Amino acid sequence: MGEGKKWNVMVVEDDAQSQMHLLSAIHGHEQLALVGAFDRVAESLGFMAATKLHVDALVCDLGLPDGNGIDVIRFAVQRWPHCDCMVYSMFGDDAHVLASIAVGAVGYIHKDAVGEDISQAILDLKAGAAPMSPNIARSMLALLRPAARLELTRPTPEPKPPNDLSAQLQAVLSAREMAVLNLIAKGFSYVEIANLHCVSVNTVKAQIKKIYQKLAVTSKTEAVFEGTRLGLIHAE
Predict the structure, then answer these.
(1) What is the CATH number of the domain that holds 94?
(2) pLDDT value at position 4?
């Protein structure tokens, strides 16, 4: 994506001061365009259902007066599969973080975080990154660590016959999808993968979506974990 690309951003935040902070960040950046600002779940869903605009990024609070921002995120992802959603909330507990990620959020900024550059976080979001406040990231690592340790202590499985699930999946995944999966495992962003393959970021996102469907996963982390488990990630 060129630097002239302008991203349409939608904001859902009921606290007046916080909403003003978000809108100021968006209006202050030439690559961001505000398409709607709301403080209720019902209003947000109504706008998304009726608008003919395409929303590229959603910044959403979770604790709203008439419901949960989780419902807004879920609807946005269903309405626009390429819309990247970022939570901006006072809630930083594991339950809220995991619930938002489960429905499609790929970023999570805690309102107490000091010095967060919201406009840059949105741009990073559209570049394929997953911006998270440090305390949120540490919390997620703490959750993943026990599972990682358990996986390391498991005995090495016996080699599987050629007709096992791994071989079937390798046949199902196209050569390009296999290449994309391995680049994801190496930490490449959507933009970097697009540049390497000379395609658009939207094309890469569509390929990754197909990979998720074939591996029955919903995130990069799960895709890499499952790809490694099934022998689809090529170690170098």
Answers:
(1) 3.40.50.2300
(2) 61
**pTM score:** 0.61
**Pair 195, 163 in one domain:** yes
- In tens, the pLDDT along 9-24 reads 999 999 999 999 999 9
Averaged pLDDT score across all residues of the chain: 82
67-82 pLDDT, tens digit each:
999 999 999 999 999 9
The residues facing 89 across adjacent strands are 110
Cα 110–112–113 angle (5° rounding)?
70
Q: Are residues 25 and 128 in the same domain?
A: yes
Residues 89, 54 share a domain: yes
What the block records as the tokens of 56 is 């590229």
Tokens for 53, please give them.
């605009």
